[in-house]
Amino acid sequence: MGDRDLSLNPTDREWESFRREVAANALPKKLLEILVAMVRTSPTGEMLQTTLQQTLDVSTELTHAEEGRIFLFDREGRASHWIFSRNESPPNLSQEQLEGILERGLTGWVKQYRQVGLSLDTEKDERWVDLDRTSYRARSALIVPILKEDYLLGILSLLHSQPGHFSSKTADLMQVTTNQIALVLHNAQLFAELTRQKKALDRELEMGQCIQQNFLPPQLPQYQGWEIAAFFKPARLLSGDFYDFFELPNRQLGIVIADVCDKGVGAALFMALFRSLIRIFSGQTALEGVSFNSPFTSGLVDKLSSIPAPLESISLSEKIYTSYRRPNIAHINALKAVRLTNNYIALNHGELSMFATLFFGVLDPKTGNLTYINAGHNPLWILESQGGVKESLEPTGPAVGLLPNLKFKIRQTRLEQGEMLLGYTDGVTEARAPGGEFFTTERLQKMVDPTVGRASTLLEEIAARVLEHTGVANQFDDITLLAVRREPSIEKS
After folding, report:
1. What Gene3D superfamilies has UniProt attached to this entry (predicted)?
2. Could you tell me which CATH number the domain at 216-486 has?
């Protein structure tokens, strides 16, 4: 009993004894609360450091240790981090000196045998190696491994200047503590590894997004008397939607808008494949070094074209045989790309069940004639200059890639001066509000009823209205729009 206790009267001594008993009972509860909080802690650096420091301080107080330390090891067993109790100044040791002590002393024994090291008297324990200090000599030591299965994550070290201070009961309690520390440290390592992998994956996805963005036309083509516009907003880093404009022989314009089934990486890869096949098989000349008639594609085209097909697989509707809509053989040959692409996907990748809804049109800028195939895509609209839908370009065949040798009919129409071709994917009409309500085709159609102005302005207005509709809700699908407007003639006064 200390001098302070002798100076107290019996009543005060009883009160002091009661206070100590309450405090002693409160410490295990406090440690338990910290351990529970530790398991629930987000395993990040600063929070983990704080939690381990609290655990060490309470463990030191609970065991009446004079000094306490936690050493954490990396996967090679080297000390990567250490924490000292708040009442202790860390020794001025280099990494090499610390490693030597951790390898040679009682700590080294614990590291080697993965067992609790309890030293009742360090002067009689040959395993003990003291720190090179004169101000403090530990006579009792409790070294507890922090183990996750057989993997040593760290060590808890508690010291006292009196021999026999720690007991096996104390060792059992601290072993429970280190088990919880091990769980938290293991979770932190898993979290760090997952974070590292996620960052690596994000970098790969960002690279994929950059590559995919390069698949879209870097600059929209320009034709005198025409305005061309597009809008694209993917729901994720990688998209299954795409649009394309490319020049065909004789300054004909290829127009594509498509939506590949599924989302994410798979859809993005097939988006690139669909785009490339349509361009190559249509004979577009902008793809440097490769054309429809090149040796690179001729063998593949012959193979895919040799598949027996009904006459209707590429057919013309009677609608195009009018005085100003005579069949354009060059357009028809280009549109054979749809059938060739369908057969390539179905024959080579049919087991993946990947397909795309796709509109492919070929525009003659001189006449405004548009020859097209709509392979299961949302109807494109021809808008009148005074507003409203003049014509809906409905599907003329199924989605591309479902089965080989599918039927695709060709249609032809004309864009008059002041009229506009508007295309969209279902990410527009099926955009969801926070309450789940769709944007709908009807709402989109109301937006084109007024007088049609510039193509770019209309797309900006549609995109703004769709994003306003979705509000704070996560974007569910890619949003893709394109517009091709034939400018009105300017009458001379």
Report:
1. 3.30.450.40, PPM-type phosphatase domain
2. 3.60.40.10
